[in-house]
UniProtKB/TrEMBL annotation, chain A:
It comes from the Bacteria. Signal peptide: none annotated. Coiled coil: none annotated. Pfam families: ABC_tran (PF00005). GO terms for molecular function: ATP binding; ATP hydrolysis activity. This is ABC transporter. Keywords: ATP-binding, Nucleotide-binding, Transport. PROSITE patterns: ABC_TRANSPORTER_1, ABC_TRANSPORTER_2. InterPro entries: AAA+_ATPase, ABC_transporter-like_ATP-bd, ABC_transporter-like_CS, P-loop_NTPase. Residues 3-235 form the ABC transporter domain.
Amino acid sequence: MELNVQNLRVSINKKEIVKDVSLRVKNKQFVGIIGANGCGKSTMLKSIYKSLKPQGGSVFLDNIDLLNTPPKKVSQKMSVVGQFNEISFDLTVFQMVMLGRTPHKKLLDSDTEEDIDIVHRAIGQTNLTEYMDRSYLTLSGGEKQRVILARAIAQQPSFLVLDEPTNHLDIRYQLEVLHCVKNLDIGVLAALHDLQMAAEYCDYIYAMKKGKIIAHGKPNELFTEELVADLYDVKCKIYENPVSNNLSFVYQI
Amino acid sequence: MFLIKNKQLFEIKGIYFTAVVSLLAAIIFSLCFSASVGQADVPLKQTFNILINKITGGAFGSLENIPKAFVNIVWQVRIPRILFAVFIGTALAVSGAVMQAIVQNPLADPYILGISSGSSLGATFAILIGFGGGTIFSQFGLTFSAFLGAVLASLAVLLLSSVGGRMTSMKLVLSGSVISALFSSFSSIIVYFSNNAEGMKNVTFWAMGSLASSGWSKVPVLALVVSVVTVFFLFQHRILNTMLLGDEAATTLGIPLSKYRRFYMLLTSLLTGVVVAYSGMIGFIGLIIPHIVRGFIGSDHKRMLPMTALIGSLFLIWADVLSRIIVENVELPIGIITSIIGAPMFIYIIVKKGYNFGG
């Protein structure tokens, strides 16, 4: 599925956070958004997944007008791994992931064998099998994040939105999560803070500053030392890593 | 692996089913027992006979050899009262559980959104000032006035929490406190300026909660409202579960929470309003029963809500029994009993290791 965002404008308390942003995720592409804290990445994603109401613009997933479609319809096609997932009540990992089946359920439907299988597979894909009966609140930040990813996978989406999915994760799990997402083989729009990973996993990247897209392109073409300096206000050296042949970054204040 | 897991699920289902059936049996037994004890003890066997006889319209069970007074005590006085306990216990426990989900706060209870102060104001008004003889309100009196107060308070909370955009759980709780304070101060004004010692005593009694006003004439309304709303919520378990995740996650799972919140709040207000109007303020059930149930079987509303309803009614039946027998020839207000039992139980839950407000 193809995501098309046109001229999106979002204000919070009369302050314009996202200013006229347009972007596109082509079929099954992994697209990253990079930018400093507070540049409007999350706000933009929130308005794409209907948590915020934008002041203007349009968001289309193929021919579904996301901004004017009921949440239930949207959630059958698109799932989201957000940034904050604290809850005050406890559920087991299994129950938490099972909630991912909600969009596909009518009021009186019960959970079928098929649902249970889907949930088990999602839990397996995120390496959580041994945590199945653990309670969510006892998990570490990284484990919680993987549970949320499993829930998003259980929604069986054709498009996935990720807001800094590798926050709280240590190195192995960062790689695992991105690998797992990449293997889903669906369209992905992800806000990422680790440039090296963005360069490695993304097919296309948009760079955002103060609510505007200031550059976009394939990782190799997009990343310049000037751009990174401008985005994050740091000195930066970029070189091709001789071990992985990927882009590597060195930062200095 | 999957097979093993599914089998486990099946076994858990089996245990759950057994628990529900045992609870139902316990409620029926408690009902018979409760109908036998009190200031006049009726033998259990005779109580059973009276019940069977009355329920089957005389087809089974014989009333011979049973004093007429016993039949009246059991059927006219105690049974309506016990049915009150059954329905009110269910209503308070269920609305407590739902309210906790609505505001995503395990410390919420059915009264958190100002319903208690609203109905208190209504009751205080009816007892100390009254509506005057000529108006249509005077026919309904205390019950109607308390109900009206409860509904007014919750509408005010709804309105206040919707000001300036989306209704959030934080706004709900804050609006609830504000409206509570406002309505309580109105009640205090009425109490302060009234010179009616007897009336003030009545207000205090009313606030303690009691099943003494029960009667067959009131059972149908209570039963209807409680059954309909409870059954409705039993079918809402998916939405209630997503509510626990908060607004954003719920939206991404296709559930627009603010809409459901408003609707559920209206329903719980109706439920609690009717209960409070009939029985005054019976505390602690709405807070503690959902917690006890979560402690045993977790927060999944599909399992938790039916259990909450059953244990709520069982708890109130026994609280009522205690209120009648604990002090000889005196009937304690049931609200005192529920708090006296409830508070230590709650302390135990908090102290008990591993309870994380959810299981």
